[in-house]
């Protein structure tokens, strides 16, 4: 009997403490093969019985050394991950890593937290069919778009997944937006794009660019549009200029728990519309289309700043980073935005900031002014240490359009096994007036036993991400949104990401998580009290997640969840509606979903 099977027996015993559980393959109530076949027929043969992605690396049927090598080579490639019904960017528990099976550390390989079946949906009807099947058979349902989620929200032990990758009914450009219900008044007379399914931002950026427009989307081209990203808030290099991505949504098409498809906008199902603009993915219904605002493109000024530490550096780059953080509000107010990173690469600290300014005026005078602000606030401050404390490189370039800039510089970030994240939104005051505390914070965050060794192998690595994606229009409280109110005061979303070492045991995992939550998150909170963080990039083990991720919106969001999904057909860990259900894990990290008595 394998260790996994023993766990299952523990689960079975644990069931008794709960009033009711969703059926899993180990239960008598799991649907029969003929029921699954019938479901398969209803979805035109697009039901997939999942197998662990790296099964070919393990002895037994399907073993293939060459296939295993290919899988291992692609394991952290976000494009490859999104192509699979059970590809996940951040598999916090990896029960089938693509290792060489001759290494004895991983004797078995199983699905773990991944869904048992996935419907490869290509039309709205498939989504409704999946929802109804899950409901009728008391099966845990999960929704997967790209699988980028950090908090396991598109995974679920023993579940049926509705996979949206191939639900692609097209992108549609509206020169002038008009709501689908003509009597619904709108104050937006500009253009818009309807995103009809599981597209990623690269698709929409290209589509908009062909029409001379831009949209607010993610920094990374592989992030999905209509799922967790838009519904949880969404930031990127243009959110400073136009507001969060979710602020741009004019209308959604949503398949409800009842299987019915409805329109949600400011006058139809307005409460649902509001909940889907900040309240997070995976919980109110399945969005199958979103219409978002677009804007004419403009010339884009780019500054790439790199600070590379010396071999003997014992804190110069960290101190310089802290000093720059305190100057961020000044450059944010000048219109600069972007996501900077700091981490150790090949033994030295490196800070890199690819900042842009989306220009309203590209006259030489206006460009010179913008450069002057960046030089005065950030770059000139670094020059006295150039060559003795670190090397500073600063490059300027002007692109004719935002898209031209986007294509010219790299944006993809690799996925990684078992990352842990700490993050916090910072207001202006805590950035500009607490220089000493910021220095201490940067040192606390950068404390980690392990460091990046190369650019792509993140195992055991750690880095700090400084998202300059707020201020500006993010500070405007857009009607019919429910994002964490902390966003409306934010100038910076600071993230620290630590990656576990390969083969980390459960004691090591626990220690690293505790260190993150009790030291790093706590230090961030101390410096930015009364703020909160971004639901999509947060520490999943923060006990105060409701308050920190949703602020005072949580209770209202929960009431909307109850209204649209009274039977908890949709459930995800760390989502609104998390309460009342629990994964009975019996000593491991996943297990059946049960209603708490
Ligand atoms: C490489 C990388 C880069 C990132 N960059 C950014 C960034 O620049 N800016 C930013 O804001 N965030 C960024 N993120 C975080 C990102 O916003 C979240 O991971 C987000 O959850 C991704 O949404 P998804 O739908 O693509 O992912 P999924 O994991 O597929 O889904 C996320 C959640 O949404 C639910 N969901 C998915 N589709 C639907 C749907 N159609 N209807 C209802 N619920 C749905 C899922 O059930 C799950 O709960 C990044 C993540 C990664 C991995
Ligand atoms: C569903 O039907 C298709 C086409 O007949 C088949 O290829 C596929 O294996 C079936 N899926 C399952 C889970 O049986
Ligand atoms: C597994 O290890 C053996 C021995 O080191 C090696 O020859 C083989 O190529 C490896 N296979 C993979 C898939 O990495
Ligand atoms: C995976 O990686 C290999 C080797 O790097 C590459 O040739 C291949 O195209 C990648 N993609 C897939 C889907 O295997
Ligand atoms: C759109 O609205 C703005 C602001 O109300 C107004 O200035 C502009 O003329 C309108 N444009 C069109 C095409 O109606
Ligand atoms: C369209 O909007 C109006 C005004 O809000 C509303 O009364 C009407 O019911 C809506 N029509 C549909 C089909 O939803
Ligand atoms: C970094 O800043 C701290 C606090 O201001 C100071 O004690 C330390 O000497 C500085 N380190 C370097 C390398 O400049
Ligand atoms: C590190 O080494 C460089 C070059 O050898 C030297 O100029 C510098 O003073 C040293 N810095 C520290 C902090 O020791
Ligand atoms: C830092 O010094 C190097 C070497 O002298 C120089 O090439 C570089 O331009 C300097 N950086 C800046 C931003 O001036």
UniProtKB/TrEMBL annotation:
Keyword Oxidoreductase: yes
Molecular function as annotated in GO: FAD binding; oxidoreductase activity
Keyword Signal: yes
Keywords: Oxidoreductase, Signal
Domain FAD-binding PCMH-type: 111-297
Signal peptide: 1-19
Family designation: Belongs to the oxygen-dependent FAD-linked oxidoreductase family.
This protein's name: FAD-binding PCMH-type domain-containing protein
Origin species: Penicillium salamii
């Amino acid at each position: 009997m394998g260790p996994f099977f023993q766990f299952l027996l523990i689960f079975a015993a644990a069931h008794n403490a709960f009033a009711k559980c969703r059926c899993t393959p180990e239960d008598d109530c799991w649907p029969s093969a003929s029921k699954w076949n019938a479901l398969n027929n209803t979805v035109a043969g697009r039901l997939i019985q999942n197998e662990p992605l790296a099964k070919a690396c393990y002895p037994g049927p399907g073993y293939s050394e060459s296939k295993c090598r290919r899988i291992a080579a692609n394991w952290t490639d976000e494009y490859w991950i999104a192509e699979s019904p059970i590809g996940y960017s951040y598999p916090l528990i990896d029960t089938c890593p693509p290792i060489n099976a001759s290494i004895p550390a991983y004797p078995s390989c199983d699905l773990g937290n991944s869904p048992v079946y996935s419907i490869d949906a290509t039309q709205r009807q498939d989504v409704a069919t999946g929802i109804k099947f899950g409901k009728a058979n008391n099966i845990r349902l999960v929704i997967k778009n790209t699988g980028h989620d950090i908090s396991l929200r598109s995974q679920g032990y023993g579940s049926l997944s509705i996979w949206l990758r191939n639900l692609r009914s097209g992108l549609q450009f509206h020169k002038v937006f008009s709501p689908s219900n003509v009597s619904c008044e709108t104050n937006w007379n500009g253009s818009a794009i309807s995103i009809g399914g599981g597209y990623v931002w690269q698709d929409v950026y290209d589509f908009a660019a062909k029409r001379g427009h831009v949209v607010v989307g993610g920094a990374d081209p592989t992030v999905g549009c209509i799922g967790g990203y838009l519904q949880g808030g969404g930031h990127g290099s243009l959110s400073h200029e136009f507001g969060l991505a979710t602020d741009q949504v004019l209308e959604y098409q949503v398949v409800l728990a009842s299987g019915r498809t409805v329109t949600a906008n400011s006058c139809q199902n307005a409460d649902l519309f509001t909940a889907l603009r900040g309240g997070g993915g995976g919980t109110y219904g399945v969005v199958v289309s979103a219409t978002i605002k677009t804007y004419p493109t403009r010339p884009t000024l780019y500054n790439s700043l790199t600070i590379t530490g010396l071999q003997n550096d014992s804190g110069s780059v960290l101190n310089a980073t802290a000093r720059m953080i305190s100057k961020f509000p000044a450059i944010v107010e000048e219109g600069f935005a972007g996501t900077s990173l700091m981490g150790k690469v090949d033994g030295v600290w490196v800070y890199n900031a690819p900042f842009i300014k989306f220009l309203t005026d590209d006259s030489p005078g206006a460009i010179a002014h913008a450069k002057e602000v960046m030089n005065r606030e950030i770059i000139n401050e670094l020059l006295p240490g150039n060559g003795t404390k670190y090397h500073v490189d600063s490059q300027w370039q002007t692109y004719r359009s935002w898209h031209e800039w986007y294509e010219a510089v790299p944006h993809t970030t690799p996925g990684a096994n078992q990352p842990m994240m700490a993050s916090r939104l910072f207001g202006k005051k805590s950035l500009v007036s607490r220089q000493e505390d910021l220095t201490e914070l940067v040192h606390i965050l950068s404390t980690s036993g392990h460091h990046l060794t190369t650019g792509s192998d993140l195992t055991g690595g750690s880095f700090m991400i400084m998202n300059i994606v707020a201020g500006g229009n993010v500070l405007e409280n857009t009607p019919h949104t429910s994002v964490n109110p902390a966003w409306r005061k934010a100038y910076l979303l600071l993230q620290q990401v630590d990656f576990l070492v390969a083969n980390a045991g459960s004691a090591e995992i626990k220690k690293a998580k505790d260190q993150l939550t009790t030291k790093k998150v706590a230090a961030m909170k101390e410096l930015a009290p009364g703020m909160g963080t971004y639901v999509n990039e947060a520490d999943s083990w923060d006990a105060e997640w409701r308050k920190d991720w949703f602020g005072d919106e949580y209770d209202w969001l929960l009431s909307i969840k109850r209204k649209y999904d009274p039977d908890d057909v949709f459930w995800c860990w760390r989502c609104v509606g998390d309460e009342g259900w629990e994964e009975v894990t019996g000593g491991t990290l996943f297990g059946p979903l049960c209603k708490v008595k």
